[in-house]
Amino acid sequence: MSGLAAAAEAVLAANDAFYTALNAKDFGAMDALWAREVPVACVHPNWNALAGRECVMESWRAILDNPEQPRVFTGAAEAHLLDTVAYVLCRELVAGGALTATNVFTQEDGEWRLTLHHSSPVSV
Amino acid sequence: MSGLAAAAEAVLAANDAFYTALNAKDFGAMDALWAREVPVACVHPNWNALAGRECVMESWRAILDNPEQPRVFTGAAEAHLLDTVAYVLCRELVAGGALTATNVFTQEDGEWRLTLHHSSPVSV
């Protein structure tokens, strides 16, 4: 496997780990997936952007603690490599609603970690 | 001015240039703002992701050619630097509707160029 293909696979694995942590409602795993050395930000569906690690992780704690938070099905993930940064485009299906997500990852300690997540409903 | 502050200012100038090109309906300026050496992708409000330069620029041509495309007001832009990649969070106001945008830029030929634009309505 080429270096590029291996990197794309690692980014897609990090993307999968993000949705696994979300569906397992595992805050520790979610927290570990977000970068610590660069700024992080998050746009949940229909929300304004949240900027800053504390604020972003607080939003995930509320989402993961919510017993009514439905399972997020995901698919059609494509990784696009820039350099030490990569982004994934993927679909999300939440309670029957279709969304599209852009997840930006950065390399930290040899791991791909989230620096930006933006999910929004698809209605066109 | 520190190197970081100068970089943030340059990223915000590129972000402004993007909205200026959009409002001027200037396809040449818009085309020049998008990266050529790395993958590009775009999520227009309520759309699925468009991946690939040809497809993304075709969408901008349709938007810029649309005589009914309203002006996009923008503000509250914040630049966050990763490395040779940076992202901007900003608000958009289009025909009275509030949106939030994440614009990811990459350095190419000494310029900050768009690699990813994701805009989505805010309703919460």
How does this model look, in words?
Two copies of one chain form a homodimer. In chain A, helix 1 packs antiparallel against helix 2 (27-33). The longest helix of chain A has 22 residues, at 3-24. The mean pLDDT of chain A is 96. Chain A is built from three helices and six strands; from the N terminus they run H-H-E-E-H-E-E-E-E. The first copy, chain A, has a single domain (3-121), classed as Nuclear Transport Factor 2, Chain: A (Roll), CATH 3.10.450. Chain A has helices at 3-24, 27-33, 53-65; strands at residues 41-43, 50-51, 72-81, 85-94, 97-108, 111-121. Helix content of chain A is 34%, strand content 39%. Chain A is of the alpha+beta class and 124 residues long. In chain A, strands 2-1-6-5-4-3 form a six-stranded mixed beta sheet. The first copy, chain A, starts with a helix and ends with a strand.
